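Figure-free illustration: sequence to structure, shown twice.
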Amino acid sequence: MNPLYGKDSAIPEEIKIVFLGDSITDEGRFIAFMDAFFLEHLPKHRITLINLGVSSETASGLSEPEHPFPRPCVHERLAKALRDTNPDWVVLCYGMNDGIYYPFAEERFEAYKQGMLSAAGKIKDAGAKVIMMTPPPFDPQSFSGGSLQPLGQVTYSYAAPFEDYESVLKRYADWILSLEQPVDAVVPIHDAILHEWSRERSADANYKSGDGIHPDFRGHWQIARALIRVLFNISLEQRPDYVDHLESSPLFQTVMLRHRLLSSAWKEHVGHTNPSKADASPLALALAKGEELASEIRKIAIGAKGDPVNKHSIWRGYERIDFMLEGREGLLIFPKKSADGKPWLWRAEFFDAFSYPDMALLEQGWAIAYYGLSNQYGCPGAVEQMNGFQNFITAAYGLAPKTVLFGFSRGGLYACNYAAKYPMQVKLLYLDAPVLDIRSWPGGKGAGTGAEAEWAECLAVYGLTEETSALARVSPIDRVDELADTNIPVVIVAGDADIPVPIGENAAPFAELYRKLGGTVSLIVKPGVGHHPHSLEDPEPILAFIRQHA
């Protein structure tokens, strides 16, 4: 399937997203996390998030005998919800209740599949895009709502679930991941939350993730993070402070107040069959109050941060600052004493991976910079965002006007395309096992393996199709003449056994052409080495080239 975002991963100026789901969606913390992110970091965009989650609801229409009332089904209200909200995108968040807490059975699985596909079809008919989330996992270690039941019981329920109910949800999640039509995007939260649990339990074996059915704030952040990544192509590594301090954050408390006000009003306006009804304001009144609260949230955000710096810390004994710029994460690490001219190196991708030359230069007085533009493949929009980042940090921190730009793997696309567009701001390029032709990787049109999902993503951000990509001159290998004209020295390290990014389609022909056109280039070939490991454990050849030319 094609990514939702289009050319240059441009974030829509205005968009309306409706969330349909069960009690996890009803609680809505992951939607509120998303709302806080957009209101704080992208305040000029009008991204409307409407939470229509209803506790106990299913897409399958099934209900366990022990449930106190027949479970609501989304199909009972879907037509009115679509008509009244008129969304651009709809996110379906079902699965936890759809197996009704029983062992796996084909008839229940079929009911879930048909319910999800039927809902997707109706959403498409209404003119909106369909996004399906995988179900979150079930956590027996944290279950606190009753007693777990072994295989062979006559009945099960949310209060007495099958002890291996997680295996049921895993099959449901795998099916969602396999879908192509009529789904526009899939959000894989199941394994992301499992990974979070594993990480937490490596530090605390008794870690509780919630109540077993409903994830805690960490799980909700993983859901929000996955949605932001899939829907907007923004990859977030840092967890905002308010996620860990919900009760003491004025910003998030106001976001949550607004969220509950609007969610309850919308749900009662649309209607649902869960007998529990929340107190709700009339929709028009709630919408007006919501606009007032949104303005208040933006004021709190400006007052809270003052400038883009979010956090100061110590990283390996060095001062580090993390910040958000235009909705994306950036960081700077400062040497203990800056070298003359305040030089700095810029990781275009994969911060701190195989960072032998980075650390050596840091010790010698260079600063290290990184800006999170992952999954944009050096497209023109990413290049412009890079320019904004460089202009910001050089002005704010007095760094040298020119940078040494490190392009690792796919970061080669960013580094070279940036240098071609803004040569006066780049002192030197260090490329490591670099992707220099998108048709080699992720396209896989030559000897390399390629990557299907990344290729679809790459085509989307460049605004290309499979056919037009053959003639598009967007890769560094097509722009060697432009780069050679810049007189920017280039040092390349690559293994001659690289399978995904073959040296014969990327580093070698690039270096040969660059040299023929009069450019300064050094190609360091690692015999018998594949795509990994990157760099050189003894980075002296790289450092010597930098000393000579930068």
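We now fold a second protein in the same way, so the two outputs can be compared directly.
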Amino acid sequence: MSDSVSGNDKAGNNFLRNLIAEQIASGEHTGEVVTRFPPEPNGYLHIGHARSIWLNFGLAEHFGGRCRLRFDDTNPDRENPEYVAAIEDDVRWLGYEWDGPVRHASDYFDQLYDYALHLIDAGLAYVDEQSPEQARENRGTLTEPGVDSPYRDRPAAESRALFERMRAGELDEGAAALRAKIDMSAGNMNLRDPVLYRIRKAPHHQTGDKWCIYPSYDFAHGQSDAIEGVTHSICTLEFEDHRPLYDWLIEHLPVPSRPCQYEFGRLNLNYTITSKRKLKRLVDEGHVSGWDDPRMPTLCGIRRRGYTPAAIRNFCEMVGVARSDGVVDAGMLEHAIRDDLNENAPRAMCVIDPLKVVITNFPADRVETLAAPGHPNRDDMGERRLPLTREIWIEREDFRESANKKYKRLVLGKKVRLRNAYVLTAEDVVRDADGNVVEVHCTYDPDTLGENPADGVKPKGVIHWVSASHGKRATVRLYDRLFAVETPGRGDEDFLAHLNPDSLEVREDCWIEPDWAAAEPEQRLQFERLGYFVADRHDHRPDRPVFNRTVPLRDTWAKIEAREGA
């Protein structure tokens, strides 16, 4: 049963950090701490991998050690240089630098082959000529022991000769495999003579056509750790049952060091899926625009959404590290980015559903340049220029012809303040042929810049605005959670049935302050009163600004969940 983490009650809980500290204090561990982040280059990293990156690099940093980046590239069918480049980019983006060169399990294929020969010669491995189907059938079940292969006791010299023929490409795929000789009656299925090498006549993205046999992940993993001098091999919980095999191989091979494996609980977010198979289906069937769609939990998607490395690292610290799998409220991740951007994002005004306002007593040829702080609490962000003109845009929802006292925006006959500018009074409206309001005519009080009206009638509210002639047209993409339920695909339901139909709304006719149209890609901003946004890293240009919503100013999902639970 998994833990459910709904707040920061586990903040600072990192049992692996505590464990290593205790090992050092007791003298059990001496020397430096060496960890590694070992992704398989068969897809894009997601938010769950972010915690593994944070954990492995963070542990090494905390104890003054080193962390390596090593690709576990033992499956040539699923690996791609595109994924290698993306993973390296993601690690750097999160703010980490690995020790030394990028490493690969394939760097050690020659050494691993020699290790396999060592096991054969020691009578601890054999070439099995059962078909894959026969081997599976004879493996047994959780309640029944396996059956020894008829080739299990063949002479070591015979297995060695067959293994060399496997390497030379003389045997067909599936005709033979190298297996460790451990215990076919072991309660742990991973110890029932596991496969160490398979024939696979496929080129490898690192080694080309040099090999036609490839080591299993279990065989390559621990030995690569040992070759690299890794001291703490940190894995997610599903590898706990593999640890006895990890230790058995380390014990029976002449490896240069003796790493230890430790497991931690996987990070799962509600309203999110991280299955590579399901994420690929989202991409392949066009439910999202690609692997870096800002609704995807991939790191490239989260980055394009406007999340910062600091927010992700802070989120990981808040969640902590537990020994069991847990489900974390997605609101915690959203809280982390709000907290970061509230302190660090410059302010801007953008109108996403424009309604024209004509200030009838403002001269038609006049442009008054007002000033506003770049950030209300930070002097280092300077000031920004706000051109005020006779015609401006406001949000359509910020005007009503009549309203009750709770509505604190622009109402006919009432006053409202323009953000960082003057007080307006709504006087009249202009309608189109269908009776819709297309313009609001107002007057402004020139004595109210930073002051309340002299008549003592204070405006009830403040609204944002953009000059109609000097503002810049922009596209704004309003992103929300991709799924509408906490556990997409629960039970036997297709996870696609739980897609949120409102996860993306594109507004093409938006208007932003003129200076921010020239923002650099990935510049993050708070659109005042609307939320936090980022200039799209791929599509944004000064002549065609494109902004993605990162999160609203407030957690609207918390209100929805509270209402549904009532």
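Summary for the second example: The two ends are 26 Å apart (CA to CA).
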